[in-house]
Each structure stands twice: as C-alpha cells, then as structure tokens.
C-alpha cells in the first residue's frame, strides 16, 4: 500500500442494536452474526488499535430513504412496523419467507441505512480514510418499490445517491455471491457510478440476473459491469477473474470514492450458495480493494450476505484488520467463546474438485471474461 495507508483512520460503524432482532425463527439471515463479529474483533485487540475508532450509527430519515424508494412503499413498511394492517403488502414484496413482516422492521432498517450513511459521511468529510458499516450491504437486492432477497431499503443506493448529489464519482464493487441487482438498478442510467458485481451466475442462483450483457442504459451505458462465475469457483479462479476486470476498470473510471460491498456468502461452507472461497481468499480480495482505495483516498465498505456464522465473524474481523493495516494473530483468541470450534482465522482449503469439473468451471469463467473484454473494456479504452 502507499504511504497514505500506513496507519489509515479506520472507522467501524456499529452498535449492538443492529444485531438484536430476528427476521423470523427459521430465517437464514441472523443479525446476531454481527454481535459475534464484534466480540471477535474485541477479543483480537482490533478495537484497541490506535487508528481504529467506533462511532455510533445514526438513523436515516424518511426523507433520505425516499431519495431512492417510493413514498407508498416506505409508508407501508412504516405502517407494518407499527403493527398496522397492510392488505396490499404483497405487491411490495413484503410478507414472504425472504422478507417477512415484523414489529420494528422500519426502525431497524432505517438504523442500518443510517450506519451506511454515517460511514459515507465520515469518509467524505475526511474524518476517516476508511469506514466499515457491516450491517449495511445486505439490502443490495431492495428495489424502489419492492423488498427482495432479505432487503428492505437499499442503503448502498441511498448513500451513493447522496455522494453523487455532492458531486462525487463513485466506484461500487460488490463481491457478494449474489448479483447486486438493486444497486445496479439504482444507478443503471448514470455515468457517475461505476457498478461492478462479481458473483455466482444468475443461471444457478438468485436473483437470476447479473449477466455480462447488462451494461447500463442511456448515459450509464458501459458503467454496469457484471462478472458471473460458475458454481464451485475457488480462490485462484475467482481472483483471476477479479484481477482481469476490477482494477483496470476502477483505474480507468477514476472515482472520487471507492464503495465496496463485502458479502461473505461466497464461502465454501455457506448454506445458501455454491462458490467456494476461503476466508483467506476473501481477505485477499479486501487487501486488493485496499490497494485501489489507497490510490483513490476514500473507502466506504459495507457488509452483505453471509449465512455461516463462523465465516462471517472471522472474515469481517480479517477485513477490518486489513483496512486498518493491523496484523491479526493466526489463531482465534481463546477468550472468544461466542461460537464454538473456531481455532484459526484462515480455513483449511475445501476438498479439491475433479479436473473435469475444473475444466468446466474454467470454460464458463473464460467466456465471461471474453464477453467483458468485448462489451465493457472498449468504453474505457482498455
């Protein structure tokens, strides 16, 4: 990293209130994962590092939420949250197994959005070089008038619209296993936001979008880049695709801010997905994003998917350590007892894949890269 990042001012925007609710008893998204993460960060000494500070998140206002969401949709979420009867909620994607209704849904989501806004404001004001809001990002499927894929209010879209309104160009990199369709939609016609999503192909995984051919419209043509990968893509193949596309596009775009969504449902033990990254493969991506951020000078990061509690706690602790340029120990500290059977931050590699399947994965991913070179690279003179 450059000299600027030797001891970057690093903010962790978090409060335990962000982890103290439940979507439903059977829901795979368990907000308590954030509390486990926070306890591991503390046990590792990360929160006591001189250049790491922990500001409290604020709650987003209704006006801020409505910069990116329809008033009727926001109002019905608010009514449900207060115990109101909402017979038309189905048309807004609410009341499904993915997006169940519950008391307090508006307040907890507005606080999540506010955590991302807090991180953005810290970075754009210069109070932090890097700000990580791990509760954010998981709403990247939310649409202007519809809840989708565990997402209610799209915090990334809201925060980036505020940055664009302030005259900033933003590069958004989404490494979640699922395509960031809501964020792509939020900026699909804009040349002020470059969205790059590297994900398991929608051919096999929700939301069924994120193909290379989705390149933007109008002024935004060429500013949406998708890298759909084959199931069971492992660290080396994932990074080969990342290296081919992400750094050259970001550098050609010349953003004022780097905004990253750091979903860890790419992990090989994640119960909902089929990519096969390790925690160290994930953290290598964070370090590469940090190298890009060092050149740009401003880095906002949010969380995202991640449904294996151990992978979430370890990976996002590793991510914050990389952001702060702090060296974690190899072993999980003995005083961390919130989750059992966690001994090291790094994973043992997953079971090797048979060569014939590796060849199929490589063939799919190579075609993806060839299509990107043809459809996206010429726009940026690459």
Task: Give a verbal description of the structure.
With 382 residues, the protein is an alpha/beta fold. The chain has one domain: Arginase, Chain A (3-Layer(aba) Sandwich). Helices cover 36% and strands 10% of the residues. Helix 6 (181-186) links the parallel strand 4 (170-174) and strand 5. Helix 8 (279-296) packs parallel to helix 9 (309-324). The protein is globular and about 55 Å long. The model has no long low-confidence stretch (mean pLDDT 96).
Can you summarize this structure?
By secondary structure, this protein is α/β, with parallel strands linked by helices. It has helices at residues 32-43, 62-65, 71-81, 105-124, 155-165, 181-186, 235-253, 279-296, 309-324, 355-375; strands at 10-12, 52-53, 130-133, 170-174, 193-200, 224-229, 257-261, 299-302.
Largest sheet: 8 strands, parallel
Low-confidence stretches: none
Give the CATH architecture: 3-Layer(aba) Sandwich
- Give the H and E element order: EHEHHHEHEHEEHEHEHH
Total helical elements: 10
Number of domains: 1
Percent strand equals 5-15%
* CATH superfamily caption: Histone deacetylase domain
Shape by Cα distribution: globular
Gyration radius (Cα, Å) is 19 Å
Strands of the widest sheet, in order across it, are 2-1-3-8-7-4-5-6
Q: In terms of structural class, how would the helical and strand content be classed?
A: alpha/beta
- Please state the average pLDDT score: 96
Per-chain topology:
Layout: E1 10-12, H1 32-43, E2 52-53, H2 62-65, H3 71-81, H4 105-124, E3 130-133, H5 155-165, E4 170-174, H6 181-186, E5 193-200, E6 224-229, H7 235-253, E7 257-261, H8 279-296, E8 299-302, H9 309-324, H10 355-375
Parallel strand pairs: 1-2, 1-3, 3-8, 4-5, 4-7, 5-6, 7-8
Helix pairs in contact: 1-9, 4-5, 7-8, 7-10, 8-9
